[in-house]
């Protein structure tokens, strides 16, 4: 007995309805990207291993899918590594390529490799799948799409302003109102760490601060103590734990907290500029919120940090994020190319739209009319009509076999096709078509012009 087929854990099949809904999100995001002047690029699904390895930290390197070399890959294996079962050294000798882990590092490689062809500032978008050898769980997959937009070659804060507008435009177009665009600045986090005497513990400090809404003030303080942050430093943080109110009032509070930090003050000035611009330009449905605990991607973000939260009525993690990085291309030898970028979380956006019933009914609209097949002569007559319908933008098809009427009607019902057309000898003589509404059962005899009009 043949073994039942399966797919690898962490991957998914998508049925026609799911693909239609995903394409609706893709097309909405792509349309906004292009409206804002971003140009599409694509990079290979796999890269040379040395392009990816060492760019994501030890944890990231562990999650990269390696591709075995072609042919007899063991013939060039490191014998010592093989005999001692040193997997790290062995892998480098039998695998020279790997599936991409994200779209950002391949983009940096693309910019460096094609720098003589690129007009800077370069605004690019990329919508492609990525792969991670992660432990599959709800909402976390080994194969998933990323939807990224980046600008490289400019350190202007107007780029950050435009990205906030871009988020607002996409979620407004998706009818997903009341999302919150959270913003922080790496310079502010560095400034706070400097003020409390923990500049050398920036990562430890921010990782703990980032947990404030999850574990509470006292547990955050305890974690900071465990990382060697002094009581005096923690006491200086007290105003942060109760920081609230409008964007402007939080900025004023931060000014007093960070008055002794040049870097922190610079971060405040950048956030104030962005907020002032957005206040004057306005947003359609999203809200901009300052969140000093936001610390995503601290290893490479150098300025603004973004994270988008779904409406409060939905229990969901972030549905987008990004930030400013000053030297991403430096990992490939091209120094001092500033950039800023954001990403949309497709799978989470899908789940939110599904939960709030925000997918338009037309998204999954399939064939609008099925022509019943009574034989070859009738089929040929029907195909001439189908051609005319398709030319008028109507989705139409002919049932391929002259099967029993009941079977063909059941096929239309199961596929939720709203109309069927019956063409027999009488219709062929009078050059008409009998249109049946599958919901009401009503039937009308129509000529081709009337048929097109009725279905439209």
How would you describe this protein?
With 456 residues, this protein is of the alpha+beta class. 42% of the residues lie in helices and 17% in strands. The protein contains 20 helices and 16 strands. Strands 1-5-6-11-10-9-7-8 form an eight-stranded mixed β-sheet. Strands 13-12-14-15-16 form a five-stranded mixed β-sheet. It has a three-stranded antiparallel β-sheet with strand order 2-4-3. Strand 15 and strand 16 form a beta hairpin. Helix 1 crosses helix 16. The protein is globular and about 95 Å long. The chain starts with 15 loop residues before the first helix and ends with a helix. 32% of the residues are buried. It is found in: Cytoplasm. InterPro entries: aa-tRNA-synth_II, aa-tRNA-synth_II/BPL/LPL, Anticodon-bd, Anticodon-bd_dom_sf, His-tRNA-ligase, HisRS-like_core, HisRS/HisZ, HisRS_anticodon. This is Histidine--tRNA ligase. It comes from Aestuariibaculum suncheonense. Homodimer.
Query: Helix count, per DSSP?
Result: 20
- Indicate the percent of residues in helices: 40-55%
**Rg from Cα:** 29 Å
Beta-strand portion reads 15-25%
Lateral arrangement of strands in the main beta sheet: 1-5-6-11-10-9-7-8
State the major sheet: 8 strands, mixed
User: Overall 3D geometry?
Assistant: globular
Write down the overall mean pLDDT.
Answer: 92
**SS class:** alpha+beta
Unreliable stretches (pLDDT < 50, length at least 5) are: none
Distance between the termini: 50 Å
Number of strands: 16
GO cellular component, one term: cytoplasm
EC number: 6.1.1.21
Subcellular location: Cytoplasm
Catalytic activity: tRNA(His) + L-histidine + ATP = L-histidyl-tRNA(His) + AMP + diphosphate + H(+)
